[in-house]
Amino acid sequence: MFLEDELYDGSNDALDLHSIAYHFASFKTWEHLPNVHLFHYADMKADLDGTVARFARILGMDENDPLVDQIAQDTSFASLKKKAIEGDNTAEGDGFYLASKFFDSGTSNKWEGKLSSDQLVAFDARMKALLPEDQAAWLLWGSKGRL
Predict the structure, then answer these.
(1) How confident is the model over 89-135, as pLDDT tens digits?
(2) Which helix (H) or strand (E) holds 86?
(3) For every residue of 9-68, which 3-state class applies, written as one string?
(4) CA 64 to chain centre
(5) Pair 52, 72: CB distance under 8 Å
(6) Angle formed by the axes of helices 133-141 and 117-130, to 10°?
(7) Does domain 38-130 have CATH number 3.40.50.300?
(8) Range 22-51 burial, b when 16+ CB lie within 10 A, else e
(9) How far apart are the two ends of the chain, measured CA to CA in Å?
(10) What SS3 state is found at 118?
(11) Quick one: which of 36, 30, 7 has its CA closest to 19?
(12) Which of 14, 50, 91, 116 sees the fewest Cβ atoms within 10 Å?
């Protein structure tokens, strides 16, 4: 279902690959505009300081401003997870939603070792059918994209 389902009735909020690719492409179309900027989690994980500096430049801030360094420190995965745990510890309720669960591991590629080589080949083929190769690579891997 994830690989083979198609968009229906203009919906792009289903949990299938076509909807994800369509959602990405709908924003990629407008990337040439000065107020549209795409960021990828993999790039943030690889270089959070550089990514926050890019945010600062886009906003017209001096990327050497101490506030930019503070933002990078406060938005690191470890810092956000710590704050989520602290919030969970002081929250009232039944624990149905714990913010710390959102910050599971901060890693990608969780399918590795769980999918067969045939499933991975089918996934790559579907991505190539849905998006140009460079866009599919960026969507999957960020600026160091590879298919």
Answers:
(1) 877 766 667 777 777 777 777 777 888 899 999 999 999 999 999 99
(2) helix 77-90
(3) CCCCCCCCHHHHHHHHHHHHCCCCCCCCCCCCHHHHHHCHHHHHHHHHHHCCCCCCCHHH
(4) 26
(5) yes
(6) 120
(7) yes
(8) bebeeebeeeeeeeeeeebebbbeeebeeb
(9) 22
(10) helix
(11) 7
(12) 116
Query: Which two tokens mark 108?
Result: 């990608």
Task: State the span(s) of the chain assigned CATH 3.40.50.300.
Answer: 38-130
Please write the tens of the pLDDT for every residue from 49-72. 999 999 999 999 999 999 999 999
Please say whether the beta carbons of 81 and 106 come within 8 A: yes
Q: Are 117 and 7 in contact (CB under 8 A)?
A: no
Report the distance separating Cα 40 and Cα 127, nearest Å: 17
The residue with tokens 């190769």 is: 133
Q: How many CB atoms lie within 10 A of CB 145?
A: 16
- The rounded radius of gyration (Å) of the Cα atoms in the chain is 18
